[in-house]
Amino acid sequence: MIKRLRRFLWLAIPIIVVISLSLGLMGKLMAQQPSISHPLTSLTEAEISTAVSVIKREKTLSEMAAFPLITLQEPDKEEVLKFTPGKVFQRKAFLVIYERSQNKTFEGIVDLTSKTLSSWKEIPSVQPAIVASEYELATQAFKSDSRWQTAMRKRGITDLNHVKISCWSPGILSKQEEAARNRLCRGLFYYKGQHWNYYGSPIEGILATVNLNTGKISSFVDRGIVPFSKENWNYDVKSLGKLLSPLKALKILQPNGASFQIKGNEISWQGWKFRYLMHPRNGLMLYQVTHKDGENIRPVLYRASLSEMVVPYGDPEPTWSFRNAFDVGEYNLGLLANTMELSKEIPENGFLLDAVFANEQGEPYKMPGVIGIYERDNGMLWKHYEYNTQRNDVRRSRELVMTMTAAIDNYDYSINWIFHQDGTLEVQNELTGVVLAQGTASEKQSEGNSDGRLIAKNIFGVNHQHFFNYRLDFDVDGQANSVMEMNVKALPMDEKNPLGNAIALVETPLINETAAVRDLDLKNSREWMIVSADKKNPLGAAPGYMLMPGGNSMFFPVEGSKIRQRAEFATHHVWVTKYKPAELYAGGDYPNQTQPGQGLPKYIADDESLMGKDIVLWYTMGVTHIPRSEDWPVMPVHRVGFKLAPRGFFSRNPAINLPE
Fold first, then answer.
1. Using CA of residue 208, residue 210, residue 215, residue 219, what is the dihedral sign?
2. I need a surface site. Which of 55, 279, 311, 656 has the fewest CB within 10 A?
3. Distance set, CA 429 to CA 183, 336, 413, 418, 623 (Å)
4. d(Cα 262, Cα 337) in Å, to the nearest integer?
5. Which uninterrupted H or E stretch holds 88?
6. Residue 452 β-bridge partners
7. How far is the C-alpha of 430 from the C-alpha of 361, rounded, in Å?
């Protein structure tokens, strides 16, 4: 996919991170220095080095061995919940090791305290995420192949250095590819002439696959020449020419400093308290989300993260039909996080945090400014105007936002965790970047082509979807929880409802895992609620948190399609499972070249009870993108999300007593 070789350049490229100089934020900067004071602290650079050295000491690795993933081994949940400051706790690292020469994948767990290898096992017939060196390997394989060279010359390209190559996971495999079980990637090709934005010049008609184990092209098909745009689609200020009139300055100031506190990886704000972790696969995650209610600290979530994504493209043409990206598991979304800047991705009153990752050689490195945190105004929080007395009571709303951005080839995404003063936690994803363009001879929209839309001369935007699955490990007032489905119904007219205006809420418990595979229903305003199974609020009801869906879509690939079998998590909006620590990924642990039915379908196969259990809700939300000319050359941001809102959790509006 993206030229992720840029990761190698992090230590060589000077990066300036602008940080507010207010004393409050400088104190927070000091607080984020590495300190292993809690079991959920991210791995430090020293711990990563220790883990890799133990693996190399205990196992004989080849020179081609790669470390696609190194992260904190999830500590035991019970131990974390019982942890108190100063208590000794275990530290373990989880590592995925891929031996390319053997085409074998291994998982290791290293005890960082004793510096010993506590677990080592081969995971047969799987492929981990693509690593940086494989993009260069694939590029060399393509450019050294005579068939590829001939195909470029047929298209009038004589200087092969003008061809940019992107490497994608192979997606849908042929029967021969499934049988061979080699590690593969497929090439996407672009012409880069005088203009740096090569995404507007895709080279169509070629389906070429590299065997990454041998470094050779394993299959090559040229389906014919398709014209591509040679126009200048650069979008820098110089290329755009005349600009819009500039806006007048808008300053965001907090003269007394920010209202949130940072202590290690723990954030406190307006009754909320939580921990964050930057995971190399999932990206920005939350742990131990609690809310202070009077003098009580009440748990809401133990762990919340983006679990998987899938982006199916809707063109059946063979050079496009394989394009079904699992951006979390196939490419390690967290490792693709971008360094952000104040007054750009986040406002000037924000604060930037660093993250520590490991490259494929197992070497640790620090990425500056990949996490942003800031407060922002959100209009009115609550208001009532009393006509009789002309009394006007109103409070303004403020939100705390924690965010990250990632570039995955042409697309850019952000993940935003938004904390509200009324006890609501909101998740908002932002989609932007460049449409994955298809070259075409057309200069006018054709009525016969329904797979997409012409978005510029010689540039076609293919219909596609983006699906995100979030894993939400609820602990509402403790671990004993149940899940209720809420449907609103209009009651029929009868003697009890003579005017036909009655509206009833029907609450149905979802008793077991297979019964809890559910979908949105706009007609019945369907929502879901996680409730405490052993506690009652002052009104005698179970306290709970509601899942309030936002925009969503149905998964359009039809029954029997290969991508529907691989991405079964996207075929339903809600899944609920009994908590099991190893069940972390909706599309399975290794979605790259995966077999059908992995992840959630397997997790629910034992059909565990959900009544009064420690349960996990998996929410899938989708965007159907029918491209338009206004999406070119860079798309305006599209937002999609959901909310987790208290229902019977507080005894009154938790923000009613905010000072004016």
1. negative
2. 656
3. 31, 16, 7, 11, 11
4. 21
5. none
6. 462
7. 32
- What secondary structure letter does DSSP report for 186? E
Tens-digit pLDDT profile for residues 33-81? 457 999 999 999 999 999 999 999 999 999 999 999 999 999 999 999 9
The angle at the Cα of 34, spanning 270 to 27, to the nearest 5 degrees, equals 45
Two structure tokens written together for 546: 């509601």
**Which of 14, 102, 81 lies closest to 275, judged by CA?**
81
Each residue's pLDDT tens digit, 465-490: 999 999 999 999 999 999 999 999 99
Here the tokens at position 8 are 């190698």
DSSP characters over 508-529: EE--BTGGG-B---GGGT-EEE
**Residue among 475, 454, 108, 91 nearest 304 (CA):** 475
Q: Which residues, in sequence order, are CB contacts of 106 under 8 Å at separation 6+?
A: 59, 96, 97, 98, 99, 120, 121, 122, 123
Residues 6+ apart with CB under 8 A from 579: 77, 473, 479, 613, 614, 615, 616
**Which residue from 358, 370, 363, 461 is spatially nearest to 415, judged by alpha carbons?**
370
pLDDT digits (tens, 9 = 90+) for 484-493: 999 999 999 9
Told to judge if 470 belongs to the known catalytic residues of this protein, a careful annotator would answer: no
Which token pair is 160?
């092969």
CA distance 384 to 392: 6
Residue 391: strand, helix, or coil: strand
Provide the total of helices (H) and of strands (E) in the chain, helices listed first: 10, 30
pTM: 0.94
Helix H or strand E segment including 288:
strand 283-293
CA distance to 69, 517, 520, 530, per residue, from 485 (Å): 37, 11, 11, 9
Taking only the tens place, the pLDDT of each residue in 77-135 is 999 999 999 999 999 999 999 999 999 999 999 999 999 999 999 999 999 999 999 99
Q: Which ranges of 40-83 does DSSP label H, i.e. alpha helix?
A: 45-58, 77-82
Distance CA 123, CA 535 (A): 42
Distance CA 292, CA 271 (A): 5
Rounded to whole angstroms, the Cα distance separating 129 from 593 reads: 10
Catalytic residue, candidates 111, 327, 409, 631: 327
Catalytic annotation present for 411? yes
Are the beta carbons of 142 and 212 closer than 8 angstroms? no
Residue 201, helix vs strand vs coil: coil
Return d(Cα 312, Cα 622) in angstroms, integer.
Answer: 11
Measured in residues, the chain has a length of 660
